[in-house]
Amino acid sequence: MLDLPGGHVRGGFLMKTILIIMVYLIFAPLLGGLLAGIDRWISARMQARFGPPIWQPFYDVLKLRQKENIVVRRSQNFYIFFFLLFIIFTGGLFFAGYDLLLVIFALTLAGIFFVLGAYKASSPYSFLGAERELLQMMAYEPMVILVAIGMYMVTGSFYIADINSFPHPLLRYLPGLFLGFVFILVIKFRKSPFDLSMSHHAHQELVRGIITEFSGKTLAWIEIAHWYENVFLLGIVYLFCASQPLAGCLLALAVYFMVILVDNVFARLKWQTMLESSWAAAAVLGLGNIIVLHFLR
Amino acid sequence: MGSPFKKSPWVIHYDASSCNGCDIEVLACLTPVYDVERLGIINTGNPKHADIFLVTGSVNEQNKEVVQNIYQQLPEPKVVVAIGICATSGCIFRDCYNIQGGVDKVIPVDVYVPGCAARPEAIIDGIIQSLRVLEEKRQIMSSMSGSIDQMIVEKANQSDLPEILALQKIAYQSEQEIYANSSLEPLNQTMKELEQEFRSMTFLKVMVNGKIIGTIRGYKQGETAYLSREAVHPYFQGKGLGSRLIKEMESYFPLTNRFEVFTWFKSKRNIYLYEKNGYRQFKTEQVSETMEYVYLEKIVKAKGSQDEEQ
Amino acid sequence: MINLSAVIDPGCRALFFYGGIVGLLLFLILFPLLAALVLLFANDRLRNIMVKAATVIIPVYSLGLVFTHFNLPVFHFALQIELMNRIMLALEILLGMYIFWVGLKYRKYWISILIFIQVVLMTGFELSNGHNLVIEHNLFVDKFSIIMALIIGIIGSLIGLYALGYMKDFHAHYQEPSKDNRKFFFFIIYVFLSAMFGIVFSNNLLWLYFFWEITTLCSFLLIRYKQTEEAVNNASRALLYNLLGGVAFVIAIIYLYVTKGVVELDKMIALGKAGALVPAVLLSFAGMTKAAQLPFSSWLLGAMVAPSPVSALLHSSTMVKAGVYLIIRLAPILQGSLAGLLIALVGGVTFLLGSFIAVSQSNAKRVLAYSTIANLGLIVMCGGIGTYEAVWAGIMLIIFHAIAKCLLFLNVGVIEHRIHSRDIEDMSGLIISMPRISIMMQIGIAGMFLAPFGMLISKWAVLKALVDYNPLLAVFVVFGSAATLFFWVKWMGKLLEVVKPLQDREKGISGTEMLPLYILASLTVGVCAFYPAISSRLIEPYVIDLYGRTTTMAQGNIVIMSFMMGLIALFPLSFINYGKRVKVNDSYLSGDNADSSIKFYGAAGSIKDVQIKNYYLENYFGEAKLTENGIVLCSIFLVVMFGVAFL
Ligand code: SF4
To answer: What is the ipTM of this complex?
Structure first.
């Protein structure tokens, strides 16, 4: 899938990159929406319910497109549009095999547009949601960068293309980083116990947190952005076992299932717990793994 | 595939002084036994995401405004389902001193689900019934918003005044943002003042879905007709409705040679709209340190041309 | 003051030999001094003219340096002036006496003791060895000096211009107890600029030391400017800590001369790790005091009582940069040594804790100060590691940080005069009341931490350098950056959110304040476009000179960054769609809105204002606790550093 030499612009390389990005642009939301549908179905089954049809997320988005768009401040939606744009951009960079750190920075930029949109809406609920989203970003950011560093230490390159073509499964060298990454994936997928800024279920505590003031088409953008993001995040999970593509895909699906399970088992926790535990995970699992790697070499 | 509205109705539930009997039944619908999510129904808890407003209870003096406020915040198209006999008619509470007596006393209701308490099956059925109304409204909304000419402009009557006042406040909110202070008169107008104006002025309204989405008023004094407080719902702005309202209003004063309007100095859009319709600025007036009025007039010269215009 | 004719005369002669470069150098050092003298006696009108003229002349000459020197290697200048050294010594003694007296006056006896030690050591050294000191080159210029000169020249003179309008406002607001002493203020500012140029062009360590001490004194005088008790105390603290560095500086010079018979920077660097580690560590210590690294960081926070142009000029863009400048200069000596690693650790801890503490601050200038301390820590880290990648990243950081931080300080200065508060919580809705200023704030903040702006590029480079050197050091950057993100974004959000009706407050900001802001804002964005050029023409040649190899950002990444920049530039375009196809409605307040988004019905029908306050996470990032730990930790590091260096 990703056998590109990192960093070298060659004939054919560009074409291939563009092709991959096109495929990503079209299929990622389909896959992401489907995953979301499966998520809702599995969750329902775990709660002894029947659950909605698999295609439900698509119905929701189609409906939202036709709804009226209500705003509090007129410019709030622009930020969301750029959030979507940069999420797509991030995923594009990732699947085209570029520098992992750059991808992470682009993801941060996208997240910040999201947060700023909610700040701009100036409602207490969206404000608090935005602030918590920032806390979440602060909580997961170290772990994500540590993953990039770990991958670099093993493969000698930050380029995703090179990491992808590394002959052995990275999981063998980076078990701690993998566990830590799965831990913060709970935050990134907005699942309990860390769905603080917003949740897919109606916890009434913050109304809908960061997305409270977005409606209609803008809400649909946010949903689609999450689909893109989820696919990209599972892509990182895949990287841990990229040498065996099939195993990699299974790994990604297994992780997804785990996260859903955790979502259904846990109640929402306080942000303090989230910050402490995810930094502890980064320090113990992530850094521990890197220390071991450093001294083994 | 059909309309996505039918497959993804999101609801918000509000307890307007119910005895909690109906609320428990509403929540029961979400449990595994009834599992409304299999129909795509989600309880959003946020009016801005919802399509269907479920109200229980007979609405009292305290929460009347809350019900209206939440209703305002639901994006179009939207429907209201009154759940339980309290919400339908007020039931045994209807004669209480503080009870409005049914949700339809404060907001328009589309579906009534009677029962005390309404059974979950009935509630689910009510929601499904409301989907048809929702779909109708969607169709009207999409066809109407595209064709302003088909909208009916007519004279407003006394009972429209609350809605007109609400519309005026929504429509002038954007103006308020420009001036960075909240001292614009249309936003501070009270119901009483409006009723007074109604006695001396002609009010026009534009209706969509039985809702007023545009309004203007005017009166004639001496040789001049004064137009004022033109307001178009933001959702329908930029579609030529403003010009249409000006023309209609002018036609209510047939033998007039001079029309006058005023607006605020930074309201470029309003000034542009009036100038497009033949108005010219003729004076400005400094009313406070930060505020300046701009007056525009339109002189209709020959009688013949005026006839043509009509 | 300095005997001008004696200096200019050889300068003119040298002009013929060096194609005008030495003339340029001397001009850059002497012209601000001249301007300062004029400003000391100028009335308001003449001051305006002089400052505006200097704002044009100094940057032009700094840029001239780039063009005349573009393709040339390092340049050293003999410039033997016996007289000059004597004048310097005399001035040093005079300054020393003044500082001694200051120490006595304010009853800060430590100041007197330190300056006494310094002056005695220095005069003793010069009197006993002055005649056999052989100094080949007093001045020099290379690419790194040019970068520094550009920063000092362009940013420094812009701040001078800004100060014109700002100081007028300042005295309109704070009458007591400081009297309108603007003549003195501008005098010091330009003396300071002169000294800064001196620092970056000096090869003779004695000269470097002389200029170094002048900046310390300028800093003291400017922090004290308000003359309140707080100002005096904080100024004394700044003086004390900087004098500590000064003592280390003197000892470094004497040690270097006694052991190796050398007092020149280039020769010292040529000696390498084996020969010059001890003086390098001592000089780095001096650099760390000047750059407010952790055990000493409190002086920079105290310095925030000074007027904003001072904070921007001395305490973020230039003077504190002199500290890190020296450390980066010495990087080749420190590279790979245990002492260097300890310096890096001090820098790393400072970055980490500085970023953490900034989260808990709501005073805008303190947030900026902590962020400055943190970023200086990052640069110190680069210097301490001393690999070629680290040096490259460190220089990038110096450039980008100077521009963006200066923009932020100046903006906060303007805001403070308009809203009469430095509290970030009071800045809510600034996007409505001061749209242009707050957009520039957003640019500045984005410039500090966001991709694809400069600081992020540099931090990325630092991260790579650290990972290549020792991945464990990266932990500082990894966790520190997360906190950085938090406090910057919440500030951005505060500027955007609107929860009360607001008045337009932007009217009446003078053009001399706005112009520097506009220029700096465009520089913040523009430098990102030019940085490949800056890197390849200035930084890389310098790094190659030292290490024989260099690093740079991969071509592909530059393309992507530019693309991102292009996308962000599209953001203003979305305002074409402003207000179309949306319905404006009140925000959701659980249905209890009192006719608006900003008021709601509270208990018993009372109407309450919506209030939104940021998180400050006191329990995690409390200032007192973290500072205390940091001081202990870094002091230990410093002690160990001296230990391993001397043993
Ligand atoms: S209808 Fe009956 S159960 Fe429902 S709120 Fe009224 S009294 Fe309670």
So the answer is: 0.92
